[in-house]
Predict the 3D structure of the following.
Amino acid sequence: MTSNNQLYGNQQNHLLRDWGFMDGVHSEVDNRLLGRVTAVHRGHWELATAAGSFRAVTAGRLGHQQAEVPVTGDWVVWHGMPGHDERLVIDQVLPRRTQITRKAAGTASAQVLVANVDWVWIVTSLNRDWNPARLERYLAMVWESGAKPAVVLSKCDLVDNRDDWIEKTEAVAFGAPIYPISAINDQGLDAAAASLQPGETVALLGSSGVGKSTLTNHLLARDRQETSAVRDLDQRGRHTTTHRELFQLPSGALLIDTPGLRELGLWTGEAAVAEVFAEVEALAGACRFRDCRHGNEPGCAVRAAMETGDLDQRRFDNYGKLQREVQRQEELQTASGRQARKQREKTLHKHIRQVKNR
Ligand SMILES: Nc1nc2c(ncn2[C@@H]2O[C@H](COP(=O)(O)OP(=O)(O)OP(=O)(O)O)[C@@H](O)[C@H]2O)c(=O)[nH]1
Ligand SMILES: [Zn+2]
């Protein structure tokens, strides 16, 4: 016999599944008290629950700890009376499967942009926005998040040599799927959309103006996110996406549009940087000395590859740059890290003294 409670539970599971809920993942929490953050506004959150979508605020103590502030895509536990209370109250943010973190602009703290996404589509338009170093930076950020990266080459209608751009992108982002698209010619949109499974969440990341909201509109097949051609223009006459919002796509996948990012400081992720530059890592493994700095050491495979042109000098330089950046961040974040830095500086100074005394 099926009890009313069970029926109720099944129906709720179904509604939450439309927002990406996966059975077994949050089984310890009563589904009736579970919700997903679909948008973050100043001072309140938009929450999708099994009873519908409602505004919510956070319980007082939540707001004080940066790490616990709900972001778009978060699964949360809430209380309140949907439809009766003006706002529900978010009590707890559930552990995140994935989270995209950057070093917050102008500060020394981390900012979580979105949570629980399966894919990140790094959107770059052809051809002015395309920048290999920036792509590498995005890729490191995504690998570090736990989500999988793909590259969307937007505005393909603006170039005639589309295949050249794909090839150039492949050389920087190997391993990541590449989707060339044009919203104007309606090219590549179906292929990109078809790559997502129902229940999967994708977040769009990229600079302002690359066409994220336009892509969102096309995938939604309705004008939810306004684009610059339409209205909601800022003083400079441009549209700006001002918050991160989670949408249900007709296919059953979920999509988060985000505002253009200007600053893209890495927070953590030495392993992620290594992942992005796998070929440099592999070469470094073939150097004669294990601790080769790829400077003047004999038997340096990295330098040899640059001399033959097999390895791009630009790529090697950016690899070093990103590696130093995350090392610095990770060291700053731990007390033992501070000691490690001191130790390295000491060794460096010793080295300098030795060189001087030669
Ligand atoms: N030629 C061409 N233009 C496009 C295409 N997609 C978008 N655009 C134009 O690019 C401009 C910016 O598009 P948006 O979708 O607002 O860009 P966005 O990435 O959402 O920008 P932010 O919200 O500021 O982050 C608009 O004028 C669009 O009409 C495309 O496929 N081809
Ligand atoms: Zn070397």
